[in-house]
Amino acid sequence: MDIGHTHSLHLPIMVICIIWNRKKQSHLEKKLKGGPAMPCVWCDAEATHESVKDCYWILPDGKKAVQITEVPAIECPACGTYVLEATSQLIEEKLYWHDVAALGSVFSYSALMKAPRVQNWFLK
Fold first, then answer.
1. Radius of gyration (C-alpha) of the chain in whole angstroms
2. pLDDT, tens digit, 9 for 90 and up, residues 20-36
3. Are the C-beta atoms of 60 and 78 separated by less than 8 Å?
4. Measured between alpha carbons, how far is 91 from 35 in angstroms, rounded to an integer?
5. Could you tell me which of 89, 88, 96 has the C-alpha nearest to residue 71?
6. Nearest residue to 76 (alpha-carbon basis) of 105, 103, 39
7. Per-residue buried b or exposed e for 53-90, using 16+ beta carbons within 10 Å of the residue's own CB
8. In Å, how far are 44, 50, 94 from 99, measured between CA atoms?
């Protein structure tokens, strides 16, 4: 059995799952903005609601971890609390492009959103 052939059979299924999950998350984000009710991204439970969660992130240099408090999240009675992919991507971008050194190792989501952008990222 050719390993490359087996791997190529699984790739389309993985891509379809990723697209399907992103589509469900975009519906959930519409729900949070006042759109129609959307079930949980993971288990399809109907009783989801907005929440906040304290999270840990590794800084882009890979040398230090920080705790970000009060991150917007979704709370599901069956799955627990999770952060949407769009929120996670926004945090990653802010950690990379903004000066978070002055914030310390524990800071809030709102403080991260207000952090100044690095003007010359070559010096970061």
1. 18
2. 445 455 555 555 555 54
3. no
4. 24
5. 88
6. 39
7. bebebeeeeeeeebebeebebbbbeeeeebbbbebeeb
8. 38, 28, 8
What percent of the chain is predicted at pLDDT more than 90?
Answer: 41
Residue 115 near residue 94 (C-beta atoms within 8 A): yes
| DSSP per-residue codes, 57-113 | EE-TTSS-EEEEEEEEEEEETTTEEE--HHHHHHHHHHHHHB--GGG-SEEEHHHHH
Q: Which three-class secondary structure state does DSSP give residue 117? A: strand
Task: Choose between 89 and 14: higher pLDDT.
Answer: 89
- pLDDT exceeds 50 at position 73: yes
> How far does the chain reach from its first CA to its final CA, in angstroms?
48
Task: Estimate to the nearest angstrom the gap between the alpha carbon of 67 and the chain centroid.
Answer: 14
Q: For position 41, what pLDDT does the model report? A: 85
- Separation between Cα atoms, residue 104 and residue 65, nearest integer Å: 10
